[in-house]
Amino acid sequence: MKFIPAAARRPIFIRAVLVCAAVLCAVTAGCGSTGNGRARTDSDSQDDETPREFTGSFAGYEWTVPGGTVFVVGNRLVVENPAEGIALMLAPEAAAAAAQQFGDRFYAEAVVRPTAKGSGKNKNFGVACRIGKTASGEENFYYAGVNWNGRNQLGTALTPKGLQFGSLVSDTSVWSAVCSDQPYVIRCEYDGGTISGSFNGIPFNKSGKTSYTIKDGETISAGSFGIYTNGDSFELYSFKIGSLDTGRAALKLSSMNGDFITLKEDSTPFVLLNENNWNVRTGTDAAEFRVEAFDDAGTACDFSVSADGAAVRVERTETGFTMTPVAVGSAAVTVSNAADSSVRKLFRCTVSKGLTLTDTDYGSYAAFYPQPGTAGVYEDDVLSITFDGPPVLVEDAVYLYDAASGALVDTIRIGSETVEIPDGTGKTTSYLLKDFMVQIDGNTVYVKPHYGALENGGSYYVVIPDGAICGTVNGKPFTGFDREQKRWAFTTRAAYVPVNAAALKVGTSVAADYRTLQAALNVAADGAVVSLEAGTYREIICYKGGKNVTVAGPAGNARGAGCEIVGINCNAYNGGTHGRAAFYWSGSDLTLKNLTIRNAYDRNIGGTAQSEALFFANGAGKKLAAYNCSFKGFQDTIQTTGKNWFYDCHIEGDTDFIWGYADVALFEKCDIVMLDTSKDAVPASASYVFETRVGSLSSALVPKGYVLLNCTVQAAHGGGNWFGRRATAKDADTDYYDQAAVVNTTVTGTVQAPLWSVGNEPEYRAPDAAGNMNVGWKTYGGSGFRAPAGVPYAGTISDAVYAAEYGNRNLIMNRVFNTDTGAYGPSDSLWNLDPAIFE
Hints:
Layout: E1 5-6, H1 21-30, E2 38-39, E3 52-55, E4 63-64, E5 69-73, E6 76-80, E7 85-90, H2 92-102, E8 105-116, E9 124-133, E10 139-147, E11 151-156, E12 163-169, H3 174-177, E13 184-191, E14 194-199, E15 202-203, E16 212-213, E17 224-229, E18 233-243, E19 250-254, E20 262-265, E21 268-271, E22 275-281, E23 287-294, E24 300-301, E25 303-307, E26 312-316, E27 320-325, E28 329-337, E29 344-352, E30 368-369, E31 374-377, E32 383-386, E33 392-393, E34 397-402, E35 408-413, E36 416-422, E37 428-434, E38 438-441, E39 444-447, E40 459-463, E41 469-470, E42 472-473, E43 476-477, E44 489-492, E45 503-506, H4 517-521, E46 528-532, E47 535-538, E48 541-543, E49 549-552, E50 563-567, E51 583-585, E52 590-593, E53 596-599, H5 603-606, E54 614-616, E55 623-627, E56 630-632, E57 638-640, E58 643-647, E59 650-653, E60 658-660, E61 664-668, E62 671-674, E63 687-692, E64 701-702, E65 705-709, E66 712-715, E67 721-725, E68 740-743, E69 746-749, E70 756-757, E71 777-780, E72 794-796, H6 799-806, H7 809-814, E73 815-818, ...
Parallel strand pairs: 1-5, 22-29, 31-44, 45-46, 46-49, 47-50, 48-51, 49-52, 50-53, 51-54, 52-55, 53-56, 54-57, 55-58, 56-59, 57-60, 58-61, 59-62, 60-63, 61-65, 62-66, 63-67, 65-68, 66-69, 67-70, 68-71, 71-72
Antiparallel strand pairs: 2-4, 3-18, 4-7, 5-6, 6-18, 7-17, 8-13, 8-18, 9-10, 9-17, 10-11, 11-12, 12-20, 13-14, 14-15, 14-16, 19-23, 20-21, 23-24, 23-27, 25-28, 26-27, 28-29, 30-32, 32-39, 33-41, 34-35, 34-40, 36-37, 38-39, 40-44, 42-43, 64-73, 73-74
């Protein structure tokens, strides 16, 4: 390894410590090493109250670099192409001094900028502490950081996914983009056996969980500190270790404005980046921010905000401030922590001329829904304009005004914005949605007012700036609607309470209780049947209300044809499994009939991202039944937990498109289609049906997992097709079995031998003395493929076990294998599967 001095360059943003020229010269002139080298200068004195600062110049301390190329540029330490794992580590003397000073309650904080993604498997990037060995001699460390899939997480080397959090929410995740033009502040905290973390001062928080407890056997009594990576190149501006009760100066700006990249702390989105760009037009609504500032001890303090140009007006509010574009030009808005002015956020604002409002009479208004002057419009309705040909969405928004007061009641942005969806609990769940609230389907633009924006018994009119949407209506160029003429006006229906909350109808007819499924779910009684009329429902469904519900499309259709719920969502927009589905259900049983659920996210436009059509997120004890339905997506089409029965359904996707943590997920008489995306702009390299995470290695009782029974599989992917692959598809340890079975199933196309993809060996139990695979990947009967042979991790089901355990749906659903006794027995909870439940 060679240390190369380079021209000094000032860091892009705050928190890095600039060292004096004499020290810098000493470092750059004198350091050079290869292999596991060290670089050092004379140590400065350190009192017991002061955090230890390790800058990129190595001033006063030692670093150990396991591999790659390392050099110094100004006050930054630049690491290129390091080995996967610990890429940079304090040498023993420096680490021991910090450990002695701060004991079992400390933080380690890095100001670091990733510059290129590595090629390792762990996909993690963060701050590591206690790099050392456990009592049993295993190499281990604790860390807080991010995952290149876009998540924050806490963990150890032995349990990398200790606790995963919601992610960096943006149009394209910061971490999916990999490289950054500014450094981030990543902090790992250790408090006597638990670890927590923060990113740019925003604590990791998911549903109130903020810390991870180190597992027994994984604890480390002492160790070093450093940077843990995927083999990623990076620049280190500063590395600081201090007492846990210090170094807490922070500045948190929460905003519902969709123009800024945010990170959620629990359910609240905070501005993530320290430097932000805001490109707006005059006339755009003010961006509102709530500000929380904290001093070094973590005590609330004041903040300041200022603008250096006339293009943006800044005003303090009771809880924060607003930024309003008022003139063409540019301005820089700086928000600073009053207790530590180095902790600040910058907004570079560029203001261009606002779009104009133009009055045009389009003659006939049959192309508009609701037509001007319509009374009794549902409060949850969707507006639409049908153009002469395909329109183009440009920019800005659609605005709704109260006709009586003239007040703006809703701004529906073209592009992306944050939306609060009522989830049946009396609360809302926040989603970042892109190209959804205003979307195109053929020649029609659909506009979805925000939930609750339209009130019962109200009068409203629509304003659309000239140039926001391009196209023609009745042969005339569409110039929108101005505020003066109020041409597109309507009134909503009076306050409405459904006659029977146990039998609700959704659709476009006058007999419907609601226009949207979400509105009906939010008032549904326990055991309710929500009937959908034929049509397309453009919704993100999020239900956590705890009522058992049946959602049914019209009877007699073919696998839900003509009755479709379609959403656009993915991990890049709303990171984490609980945020990215088109249809999310938690807290109760669900029955689906005669409908289609489709996630219309297009990775050819937005890039590869997990994007469930359906996530049944209940955990053990809850039941999902689906009949005559279709589920359409690409990566991760269906994710389930609990017990599931899909009967006479269609499921399509390409990557792990049936996956989850279900005890049993039975697919009976279903058509499974492995889509060919090999020639797409952003293709999947191959197709896998299953990725299963069943039971627990610590429990003797193993349920049947994911089972195809009497199904058809169309293996169409040009890059290769497999029935499944190992849970997580990584080499990290897991705590669940790769449990799946393909029974009496017909395959068209080619499933590659040995049917299951093994980049890494799955978790399974060896076949019994009769050769029967009870826990693991297995097949029985069927046609169009050969049973796996010559591999230990996959096998077959014997005739005797088939007859006793897989011969019908109730045997599959209600019996488990006992790894201690080597025998099958009844499960703790029984579910009698009878097609009559679908009648």
